[in-house]
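Handout, page 2. Input:
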Amino acid sequence: MIDRERLRAQLAKHEGNRPFVYDDVTGRPIGEGTFVRGLPTVGVGRNLAGKGLSEDEIRYLLDNDINDCATQALKYPWFSKLDPVRQNAVVELLFNLGPTRFAGFKKFIGFMNEGRYTHAAHELLDSKWAQQVKGRAVTISEMVRTGEWP
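Output:
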């Protein structure tokens, strides 16, 4: 029988445990424009190019990211007062934009705080972000405006 605890510890000792993607040949983090000599790797030796992620791993990571975004959303007092559809729209915005860029949507945030959802939806569509994400912006803005799933 495999002793998973001891094997995990030994593998982490030998492979390292890196929370960010790195080049397994150079050990350097991989960022935008990085030349990779080896394979993109993460965690304890997970070869992302060769093995990738299973559907369960993808779902697990996504659920963690959704939870992180929902936690960020709760920092806005008005968020908990929203109906579930609008809450989902805000969480998706946080997922897509990140908390810093989301905070830059000051008029949108102000309108959401006031319950002026049509105005908030318009603010989303009248942004550089909407030009970049196109249909996604239309979907999210409709969720904000109507409180209904598309």
